[in-house]
Request: fold
Amino acid sequence: MAFPTVIAIDGPVASGKTAVGRGLARRLGYRFIDTGLMYRACTLLALRSHIDVSDAPALASMADGLRMHILATPDGERLVVNGEDLTAQLRTPDVERNVSEVSKAAGVRTAMVEQQRRMAEEGRVVMVGRDIGSKVLPHAAKVYLEARLDVRVHRRLAEAVGKATEAQVRENVLLRDRTDSQRTESPLTVAADAVVVTTDELDVDGVVEEIVRVLGG
Reply:
């Protein structure tokens, strides 16, 4: 069974991209790259530097100076930025609230896309995000994951670091959906040639099996 050497998985927040992408990469023996970590790191560093998250030029200047490496470890992926491992700080409420605003800055996306394409150059990679198939890797095999809002809210609530109510998480998911789909630069969209998989009733293994079936057929 022959598989594409580069697989792009897109979808809205908490649609299951990270768990499914990691499981698919493990199944195929591919590298796994979660591009969401990269935008979270930009957000964390902007907040650290007291950069206004609506100041697109300042964000772009910061992002252009970042060099990122995603390392596979037995405990999951680690994101190292300019030599510092930021992984443990990427899912705080402050980062969660601001990541969509930072991510929509054109200069930030340009800087991250350049690094993402470099990471994919060697092939045998599963890359997940919101614009991977439509923008970053247009020639990749494409999968788009979707799930109902309630399912996504409960998934995100389970991942939250610190105290967060269901109402707060729902509000944040809806905000992320609006920002991601309405931004001018690389909005979240379903690529015309993407395979769409609904993850509501499937566990991670079930979604991985469906992707393997479709892409390997």
